Amino acid sequence: MKLSQKSMFPVVCCYTQLSLMILTNIKTLLLLVDAASWGNAYPNAIVNCPDLVGKDDRLLEHGLDKIPLDVLRIDTIRIVLDILDEISVLFPSKHIHLGGDEVDKECWLHSALVQNFKNKHGHNWHKALHSKFLMNTANHLASQHGKNIILWDEALDLPALPANTKIQVWRWWLKGQFRRAHRKKFESISSVGYYLDYLNTNWQDMYDRTISPHATGGEACSWHEHADTATIEHRIFQRLPVVAERLWGNAKLNKNERTLPRLAWVICRLKKLRGLRVASVFPDYCPVTPATGQGYTMEKDSMVFEVNQ
To answer: How far apart are CA 217 and CA 36, in angstroms?
Structure first.
């Protein structure tokens, strides 16, 4: 695909098909937002709106997020489906995340095809168009690859969604999103309070977070436009073990005097096993060189854990 050849990142930062095959879970593919980079490879696949991008009050970075795919062009649909076909072969997961949030309808209107669609569909034309694209894409994934889709909770505002869609709720300021999904007979996933790039959310807050009874599980997320190789591992992995314990552990497990030492042990183990650059959550010492993991053995690790219990 031209997307990998025209990436905004150097080749060394891009996954090859061979490296992707070692992964077992599909990662989020945002089709309708963050689409500006697609224009480097396929200029006709996106809708350009330089007037809106340049005037964005959160500067160019956020302005570029306004650029969507031109989803009424046949060539755009073919590109999207080709990418999804390739991903579906590489990843065995039965679910694929299509994003579906933060679509800018004003930028969409810079497309003549979209303008014509608006004239035919009235006030809620943008929801009808969004829904049409997702339905067609989801039907292709289901019929050709046996996959169901996951969408962000903004999708609950759309007029139609595939029956087996899962809704991932992230907007903590909107109450009742899990109930909305449940009423519409959609399973839901909670990311409320589990955004790892929100540095003001500490591990205690994540540990104490309760998940809606309507949610089937949760997922920690991290968006790192402002992170680099020096900071990204710390941002993710210092608090991720807390989320893992809450989602995979005993529901009756409460935070106590052993929780923090256990978290520190897991972080130290990650540093030893994988060489991750992660700071401790409290004054602690982890006897390992992070870059090499030198001196680590599973036997030593097990004995340390028994002592810390």
So the answer is: 32
| DSSP-derived 3-state class of residue 197 | coil
- What is the amino acid identity at position 221? C
* Alpha carbon distance 169, 89 (integer Å): 27
Measured CA distances, 246 to 198, 208, 299 (Å):
18, 9, 26
Are 107 and 95 in contact by the 8 Å Cβ rule? The answer is: no
The CATH homologous superfamily of the domain defined by 2-249: Glycosidases (3.20.20.80)
pTM of the model: 0.85
Beta strand 148-152 with 166-169 is parallel
Give pLDDT tens digits for 178-208: 999 999 999 999 999 999 999 899 999 999 9
For 173, the token pair is 């300021």
Rg (CA), the chain: 22
Q: What is the pLDDT of residues 52-83, one digit of tens each?
A: 888 876 656 667 788 999 999 999 999 999 99
Domain boundaries, the chain: 2-249, 256-309
